[in-house]
Write a structure and sequence with these properties.
heterodimer, A: about 110 residues, mainly beta, 4-stranded antiparallel β-sheet, globular, B: about 120 residues, 6-stranded mixed β-sheet, 12 strands
Chain lengths: ~110, ~120
């Protein structure tokens, strides 16, 4: 158990819809990261927050947004969903913001777009 | 831009064989960090090891060992006496520091992964 909690574990929805994925980091971790894992793109970094502030951004689509709340949990919002958004979405957390610390991953949210 | 290459897409071995997973990376940073993660069939990503670019000592942890060679930009992972429970996808990753305005962040760049199957 990594200590990172992601909900829900599975989401099935239709094209054009909007969903919210939730992540609670490990106790004491201030950084939260979001990754997308798909068959064609592999594991791709989306965005990082540190103590409520955005710190790094990857190839995150404009239809996607995220935030980190004062209690440090984070939400990833995906809107106007397309078939290609079907993927496994991981949240990870680390103590600080520098890359020398390992990121610990949650179990992921599997998103299926019908 | 950083890049991680795991040339072996799939490896199949018989239990008790030794197996080495290759990882080659590219980066312009002088200080960087390398990681290995394991993704078993259940899907979660499990952290295995971190290596700093300035520490080229090899590391052994039980049946696992890691060989970091800066001269060849490689960070290979060996499992000795493999077991069926080692069957998983293994990812090599490189940490990149990202400067945004006056603050800093980081992100992991992952390789494509190597599917290891250990047969009884």
């Amino acid at each position: 158990d990594s200590g990172v909690t992601q909900t829900p574990k599975h989401l099935i929805t239709a094209t054009g819809q909007r969903v919210t994925l939730r992540c609670s980091p490990r106790s004491g971790d201030l950084s939260v990261y979001w990754y997308q894992q798909s068959l064609d793109q592999g594991l791709q970094f989306l965005i990082q927050y540190y103590n409520g502030e955005e710190r790094a951004k990857g190839n995150i689509l404009e239809r996607f947004s995220a935030q980190q709340f004062p209690d440090l949990h984070s939400e990833l919002n995906l809107s106007s969903l397309e078939l290609g958004d079907s993927a496994l979405y991981f949240c990870a957390s680390s103590v600080g913001t520098i890359g020398n610390q390992p990121q610990h991953f949650g179990d992921g949210t599997r998103l299926s777009i019908l | 831009a950083q890049k991680v290459t795991q040339a072996q897409t799939e490896i199949s071995v018989v239990e008790k064989e030794d197996v080495t997973l290759d990882c080659v990376y590219e980066t312009r940073d002088t200080t960087y960090y390398l990681f290995w993660y394991k993704q078993p069939p259940s899907g979660e990503l499990v952290f295995l090891i971190r290596r700093n670019s300035f520490d080229e000592q090899n590391e052994i942890s039980g049946r696992y060992s890691w060989n970091f060679q800066k001269s060849t930009s490689s960070f290979n992972f060996t499992i000795t006496a493999s077991q069926v429970v080692d069957s998983a996808v293994y990812f090599c990753a490189l940490s990149e520091a990202v400067a945004v305005r006056e603050t800093s962040g980081s992100r992991l760049t992952f390789g494509e992964g190597t599917q290891l199957t250990v047969n009884p």
